[in-house]
Amino acid sequence: MNTILLVEDDKAIVENLVEILKREGYRVENAKGQQEALNLLPLHSFDLCLLDISLSEGNGFALCRAIKDKEPDLPVIFLTASGDEYSVVAGFDMGADDYVKKPFRPMELLSRIKNVLRRSGKAQSVVEIRHLSVDTVKGVVKKSGEDVFLSALEYRLLLVFLSHKGMILSRTKLLEEIWDAAGDFVSDNTLTVYIKRLREKIEEDPQNPEIIKTVRGLGYKVGEE
């Protein structure tokens, strides 16, 4: 799991970003200003820093330089309300790897994060839960070290579950997600069949699933362990 240092002092933005990032499987530590960020730096193994240029305590440009001095391989993405050429150029001169202009679209930010992590060699492609290992880059699923062969829709369904670990997913939400991927009509009954098949392939005991659990009356949930 990649860990992100978020340096931002706007409470509403922090709450929104933390929710988005955690939902995508990232671990997040938040600092409100320059000194707090520098204090956190040696306490965690960060994979990326999201840094607001306009901080109430300290300066984003100066903090970027300080971060790069201490952790030269730590990629930095600037969050900026200013899209003027000076801010962009100054950010790159300080060692920033990318920048996103506020207000940003969540999917654009997530895409930029993934691209920067990939370029820096810090992207983590293997997701593990209990006896299951999923390499999302190679598309390889292993159960207790043995290859598991899934259909395209079964694999997509598994990725939907894994990307929402800890969250309850309703049947409606699952249908929306796999509809986008399959391009074909998927009925509620068909969803039941695919969940049953997926459990048979990935669970040690499909009758008593430990990965894809049923939450009676609400939907399904994949634990975070």
From TrEMBL:
Residues 124-224 form the OmpR/PhoB-type domain. It holds the Pfam family Response_reg. Residues 124-224 bind DNA. Keywords: DNA-binding, Phosphoprotein, Transcription, Transcription regulation. The keyword Phosphoprotein applies. InterPro entries: CheY-like_superfamily (IPR011006), OmpR/PhoB-type_DNA-bd (IPR001867), Sig_transdc_resp-reg_C-effctor (IPR016032), Sig_transdc_resp-reg_receiver (IPR001789), WalR-like (IPR039420), WH-like_DNA-bd_sf (IPR036388). GO terms for cellular component: cytosol; protein-DNA complex. Residues 3-117 form the Response regulatory domain. One of its GO terms (biological process) is regulation of DNA-templated transcription. CDD domains: REC_OmpR, trans_reg_C. The modification 4-aspartylphosphate is found at D52. One of its GO terms (molecular function) is phosphorelay response regulator activity. PANTHER family: ALKALINE PHOSPHATASE SYNTHESIS TRANSCRIPTIONAL REGULATORY PROTEIN PHOP, REGULATOR OF RPOS. May play the central regulatory role in sporulation. It may be an element of the effector pathway responsible for the activation of sporulation genes in response to nutritional stress. Spo0A may act in concert with spo0H (a sigma factor) to control the expression of some genes that are critical to the sporulation process. This is Stage 0 sporulation protein A homolog.
